[in-house]
Amino acid sequence: MDQSQFAAAIGVLPQHVTNWKRRGMPADQHQRAADVLEWSVDELLGRASLALDPIEVQLIELYRGMSLDHRADLLTMANRWYSAAHPHDGRADPFNAKRKAPA
Description:
The protein is an all-alpha fold. The protein contains 6 helices and no strands. The chain folds into 2 domains: about 1-50, no CATH class; about 50-90, no CATH class. The model is unreliable at about 95-103 (pLDDT under 50).
């Protein structure tokens, strides 16, 4: 799901989502956005601590050991694999299209 699709799914203009990336999402949109992403509001706001299985921990450790370029490549490949396997799933990060790997 891209940013425009995300905006349409929650019933706002794409420009609103762009503004939220800079200013934060208004509280009255939290539940609707969480529902579209199939997350809890706590997950959306980063307040929920998710339990990781051993494979997830291993992937995170490998990721942290990579250069920034390799991180970006890995994210690109993972998004392609996921999109190919789940073309109409809608669970992908709505902001992933141009996101760079964090430092």
